[in-house]
Design a protein that fits this description.
118 residues; Immunoglobulin-like; four-stranded mixed sheet; 8 strands; 34% strand
Length: 118
Amino acid sequence: MNRAFRILSFQAAVLVAGGLMMASVSVSTHAAVAQAATTVRIDNFSFNLPVLTVKRGTTVTWINGDDIPHTVVATNGAFKSNVLDTDDRFSFTFAKPGQFSYFCSLHPHMTGKVIVKA
């Protein structure tokens, strides 16, 4: 009986440790997914993150919070939004490392840059 109790205790400890490991893997995976998306707000004729550094594969979403239309246009032609009315969104996934400067084609003084690291 004593030996059986020890075996059962060992098995229970292994199950608990395995469960804890799976929980930490789940949390780590969720955190990695959360970092793969970033939001830039357009408010008061400016981009709230004028310079943004992200990892390759990150999706950046611009949201127009102004009551005036805006656009998001890369100077190198990598991306170009339609005209964004209030609360409209535009998203782009950065697949390659590099620096991507952008501006609002309706208000060219509005500029920003996304720096993509490998």
